[in-house]
Amino acid sequence: MNRDLDEWLDYLTSIHSSEIELGLERVKAVAEKAQLLDWSCPIVTVAGTNGKGSCVATLENLACTTGVEVGVYTSPHVLRFNERVRVNGIEVSDNDLTRAFEKIEQARGDISLTYFEFTTLAALAVFRFYEPELLVLEVGLGGRLDAVNIVDPSIAIITTISLDHEAWLGNNIEKIAKEKAGILRNGIPVVLAAPTLPEVIALEANKLGCFVSRYGDNFWFDQVNHTYHSPRWKVSSNQPPNLHPESLSAGIYAFDYIYPRKVSEKSILEALTNGRLLGRFQMLAKKNNFLLDVAHNPQSASYLADRLGQYFDMSKPLNAVVGIMADKDIEQTLAPLINKISHWYLVPLAIPRACHPSSLKDKLLSLNDQATVTIIESISELEHDSIGNNFVVFGSFYTVEAALRALDNHG
User: Fold this and answer.
1) pLDDT for 189-232, tens place per residue?
2) C-alpha torsion angle, residues 228, 230, 235, 241 (rounded to 10)
3) If we measure between CA atoms, which residue out of 181, 190, 174, 177 comes closest to residue 250?
4) I need a surface site. Which of 179, 285, 326, 370 has the fewest CB within 10 A?
5) pLDDT averaged over consecutive 10-residue blocks of the chain (411 residues)?
6) pLDDT, tens digit, for every residue of 253-297?
7) What is the pLDDT of residue 407?
8) C-alpha to C-alpha distance for 7 and 162, rounded to whole angstroms
9) What pTM was computed for the model?
10) Between the CA of residue 364 and those of 295, 336, 337, 360, what are the distances in Å?
11) Which domains does the chain have, with CATH numbers?
């Protein structure tokens, strides 16, 4: 049967009873049949709670600006599934993806795969079509048991670590860090992309004989002067980066480690100045000003709160639009912004996991019983508001997706 991309994606949601099934035996067996485990090019695997996207985007940017053919796999997407699989900075076609899905379907036989496992294998199948010079793979959940971890990296990057997905990864930082450290391999270089990380990661790296580079020791970013530092480089920009500075720096450092002869001051400056991510500190200046960010856990919300002054005059009222998953630590995610927001607008999300706006309102009021809260049906309603208002939109990839679709249609 010939399926188009939408039909394939619908099919993938129907063939497994649960969204997540931990363990690599099934997905590795299919990968072996499809010949997706052995690669001749360098492979960078990126794990962490927050900042992975910034790191991946930086590696991709540097590859494209220095002429290195690169395949990139990320998740989740914001608007289109194709965002997850890119070659040389361009989303692959529906045809590439359907060909890859067909290849995985043939290889799996009666082996059951989750949606994420199937799509991860399909991404690798797409890269097999192109055979790029570099692969950059973002871990979706955890590390040790994530489908991406079937592929052995040449270099591993671990970004920030905080509480998220506790039901799957553990309910404390050390347990989560142990899962993230599962991407490490014997003797490979490891880049630690945060000023502080749980000691279990360094212990695991030392046990495996990994060569460890740390943010703050081997490379760093001066956020006052917007300057990237490493033993080889000192490059300054005239503006703060849009991407997460620690993860941005780790991406530069890792790429420079792999391709030292390709990197130049010009390519680093390009990464510092023009690095962008859909839905991460993305400003839409419509009738009103909307800052979109996929912050959805306490650490990322705190980082968002700290950076608001880069985008808005904080002496003026700032409104928030929020939709969030019910299984998140909602109170701790809202808390960093509770005293920065004049008016909260709560929006429903068309997904069963989402927290209902009325429940979200109760949680907000428990943090600040004087908060001004309005439940809306669609973000597009806010474009009919008076002109010149400022809004920050956050809480979930789904919230940012809803905002992008609503504002594109009604801006």
Assistant:
1) 999 998 888 889 999 999 999 999 999 999 999 999 999 999 99
2) -20
3) 190
4) 370
5) 91 76 88 97 95 96 98 96 98 98 97 95 98 97 90 96 56 83 96 91 95 97 96 96 95 98 98 93 87 93 94 94 93 95 95 94 95 92 77 95 81 39
6) 999 999 999 999 999 999 999 999 999 999 988 778 999 999 999
7) 85
8) 36
9) 0.92
10) 17, 12, 11, 6
11) 5-274 (3.40.1190.10), 282-410 (3.90.190.20)
Q: What length does the chain have?
A: 411
Q: What is the pLDDT of residue 195?
A: 87
CB-based contacts of 123: which residues, under 8 Å, 6+ apart?
A: 73, 84, 85, 100
CA 349: distance to chain centroid? Answer: 20
Q: CB under 8 Å to 259, separation ≥6 — which residues?
A: 66, 68
Give the pLDDT score at 168: 46
The answer to whether 324 and 395 have CB atoms below 8 angstroms apart is yes
pLDDT at 165: 46
With beta carbons less than 8 A apart as the criterion, state whether 273 and 280 touch. Answer: no
Beta strands 343-346 and 189-192, pairing class: unpaired
Which residue shows structure tokens 């890119």? Answer: 86
Tokens 């962490």 locate to: 48
Angle subtended at Cα 20 by Cα 16 and Cα 26, rounded to the nearest 5 degrees = 70
Phi, psi (5° rounding) for residue 162? -150, 175
Q: Which amino acid is at 410?
A: H
Per the CB < 8 A criterion, the answer to whether 283 and 357 are in contact is no
